[in-house]
Write a structure and sequence with these properties.
The structure holds 2 protein chains of 2 kinds. By secondary structure, chain A is α/β, with parallel strands linked by helices. Chain A has helices spanning 17-27, 45-49, 53-70, 79-94, 96-108, 122-130, 132-138, 170-177, 201-217, 228-236, 238-245, 256-263, 281-296, and strands spanning 2-6, 32-36, 74-76, 119-121, 147-151, 181-182, 222-225, 253-255. Chain A has 2 domains: 2-122, Glutathione S-transferase Yfyf (Class Pi), Chain A, domain 2 (Up-down Bundle), CATH 1.20.1050; 139-296, Rossmann fold (3-Layer(aba) Sandwich), CATH 3.40.50. Chain A is built from 13 helices and 8 strands. In chain A, the strands form 2 sheets. In chain A, strands 2-1-3-4 form a 4-stranded parallel beta sheet, sandwiched between helices. Chain A has a 4-stranded parallel beta sheet with strand order 6-5-7-8, with helices on both faces. In chain A, helix 8 (170-177) links the parallel strand 5 (147-151) and strand 6 (181-182). In chain A, helix 4 (79-94) packs across helix 5 (96-108) and helix 9 (201-217) crosses helix 11 (238-245). The relative contact order of chain A is 0.14. By secondary structure, chain B is of the alpha+beta class. Chain B has 3 domains: 3-75, Lrp/AsnC effector binding domain/regulation of amino acid metabolism (RAM) domain (Alpha-Beta Plaits); 81-171, no CATH class; 180-254, no CATH class. Chain B has 12 helices and 4 strands. Chain B has helices at 18-26, 53-61, 82-87, 103-107, 118-126, 130-134, 147-151, 158-171, 180-195, 200-210, 215-228, 242-255; strands spanning 3-11, 31-36, 43-49, 66-75. Chain B is globular and about 60 Å long. Classes of the chains: A alpha/beta, B alpha+beta. Chains A and B meet through helix 2, helix 3, helix 4, helix 5 and helix 9 of A and helix 7, helix 8, helix 9, helix 10 and helix 11 of B. The complex binds iron/sulfur cluster (2 copies).
């Protein structure tokens, strides 16, 4: 068993509840113990670092201070939390003056951060710590023939990611490990618009449209994502994209953990498939029946 | 050089003769910078007021096309040169390495919607064009995709620069409360200050209330779908350590800067 401090992030309790459910569900079979960070706060994300950066770094650092006491790596499934928390770490490492200020500010709240926490994304942990070999050994319901567009988005692979910033391969390999087929996806690490979907909706819809188009023309039956914002933008706004661009996309957008869970033989309802707005029922039908029978035997 | 002031100006007659009014303002020796703005006002003007802000304001009010003038802000002392100010922010110093090659602009997915491309923003900072940079929409349409940063051959931290510039625009009072992205950011940070977490329903609700409640209609289908799929809990969660968040923010505000 491997132990981690777990940082779900705000989205996993709301728009990305399926990500949280499926992450929890796969952790047991993959022998990971994800211990939720006690009383974590929002990482602050881009909106905070674009408003008052000193506050933003301190808000992120509160989480790092809490995590440091556990002595464990801090794992998050959210690419934005991953980027923001890693950024606080690297800014504190790089700028001694900032570090002194932040130390003083945290002290005012009775906290201390020495800079020892490793921030990690769940996808990276699965790839590097758990390993594809081990995952493969646990696959009981291979997703044979399923064509999946591997969507990395931005903040898992940039600026600090563990994989190539523009042509990453880890998720492709993971999809193949599950018995499915990773389709070519030229826009695999392109932007979905992120939180600009709220203030600059038309701009974001244009980006989402391009992504859906690229995935569809390359033959994908569904998209696998590693980020709550990507999932919501591509799934919940697909209808608006269709009406704006006169398109007829009907492309399920799944968290990679949902597909992983299915291949591990976990029951679909534990994986939150009912939370997907574009239903994946049709494309996953061959595997969901199999999952049930695997479980029953 | 004396005091600097920012004025917000309304035109008579529903904004006819916009170009003439712009030229009229630009011809004034006191005027350092004019930006046409959307929303409640027609122009934002920055003036140098060596003998007093009121004199300059009256001079503008005498113009027959001016309907109304509000003083947005008065700056008592001369601020740091802009380039110096940007370079003193963590990551801001990296613009010193920029070779103006244009790779960032060529990579940016949103460059077509920007007033100035990322490369141009850096050129403007170097030229000391504070108002032009800080009132531009460039930062508001940056999606923080980090593609520019990943591709820059000189390791300029362009995405960080975008965030830092938006912070400066907010700090200098140049966002004036009408930029949608800035309004979203504010609703987001308020949520954290209040609860320690972000409540996505509350965030969207506050955003549309402050910008355009009618735009929310377009989104009601998205909201309903999220809600009916159990993805929009109505209750906000509050962390136990909210007092720590408050202490952090108070102390950070007392120390200031970044
Ligand atoms: S890519 Fe880098 S060096 Fe080239 S213009 Fe942009 S910031 Fe400057
Ligand atoms: S981070 Fe911002 S400026 Fe840079 S490429 Fe992405 S959207 Fe453009």
């Amino acid at each position: 068993m491997k132990y981690y401090s777990y940082f779900p992030g705000c989205s996993l309790e709301a728009t990305a509840v399926a990500y949280g459910l499926s992450t929890k569900a796969i952790s047991g079979p993959l022998e990971m113990e994800l211990i939720e960070l006690e009383d974590w706060n929002c990482c602050g994300s881009t909106p905070y670092s674009s408003t008052e950066d000193l506050e933003a770094i301190c808000i992120a650092a509160r989480n790092l201070a809490l995590a440091e006491k556990t002595g464990l790596d801090l794992v998050t499934p959210c690419s934005s939390c991953y980027c923001t928390l890693s950024r606080a770490n690297s800014q504190l490492r790089e700028y001694p003056e900032l570090r002194d200020k932040v130390r003083e500010i945290l002290a005012a709240a009775g906290l201390e951060y020495k800079g020892q926490v490793r921030v990690r994304h769940l996808a990276e942990v699965l790839f590097n710590d758990i390993g594809l070999e081990f995952i493969k050994s646990k696959v009981v319901n291979p997703l044979s023939g399923l064509k999946v567009a591997p969507y990395y988005g931005c903040q898992l692979v940039r600026p600090t990611g563990f994989d190539d910033p523009e042509n990453p391969q880890s998720l492709d390999l993971l999809i193949a490990t599950l018995g499915a087929e990773a389709t070519p996806f030229p826009l695999k690490s392109r932007c979905c618009g992120g939180s600009l979907i709220i203030p600059e909706m038309d701009l974001a819809l244009g980006l989402i449209h391009q992504l859906l188009e690229s995935a569809t023309t390359n033959g994908a039956q569904c998209v696998a994502t590693v980020c709550p914002l990507c999932q919501t933008n591509l799934d919940a706004y697909q209808g608006i994209v269709n009406s704006k661009f006169k398109t007829r996309y009907d492309l399920p957008v799944l968290f990679f953990t949902q597909l992983l869970g299915l291949a591990l033989g976990i029951a679909p309802k534990e994986l939150g498939f009912d939370k997907n707005i574009i239903s994946a029922e049709r494309v996953l039908a061959p595997f969901t029946t199999a999952a049930r029978s695997v479980r029953e035997t | 050089m004396g005091v600097k002031a920012y004025f917000m100006i309304n035109m008579k007659g529903g904004g006819n003769g916009h170009a003439d009014a712009l030229a009229d303002l630009e011809a004034m020796p006191e005027v350092e910078f004019v930006a046409p703005v959307s929303g409640q006002y027609d122009f934002m003007v920055k003036v140098d007021a060596p003998t007093g802000v009121v004199q300059v304001a009256n001079k503008i009010l005498e113009k027959e096309w001016v309907k109304h003038l509000d003083v947005l802000k008065i700056e008592p002392h001369i601020p740091k040169p802009f380039l110096e100010e940007v370079c003193s922010i963590p990551s801001g110093e990296s613009i010193n390495w920029c070779a103006q090659c244009g790779m960032c602009s060529a990579s940016c997915p949103n460059v077509a919607q920007m007033d100035y491309s990322p490369r141009k923003i850096i050129a403007l900072i170097r030229a000391g064009k504070r108002e032009q940079v800080l009132t531009s929409n460039t930062m508001s349409v940056c999606a923080s995709c980090y593609l520019c940063t990943a591709r820059c051959p000189e390791e300029v931290k362009i995405t960080e620069l975008m965030h830092a510039l938006e912070c400066l625009a907010v700090r200098h009072g140049l966002r004036g409360g009408r930029t949608p992205t800035t309004i979203m950011h504010r609703a987001f940070t308020e949520s954290i200050k209040k609860n320690g977490r972000v409540h996505e329903v509350g965030l969207m609700f506050r955003f549309y209330l402050r910008t355009n409640p009618f735009a929310a209609l377009r989104l009601s289908t998205v909201g309903l779908k999220l809600f009916s799929h159990g993805r929009m809990p109505l209750r906000a969660r509050k962390i136990k350590g909210i007092e720590q968040i408050k202490a952090i923010i108070d102390k950070a505000q007392a120390l200031g800067g970044a």
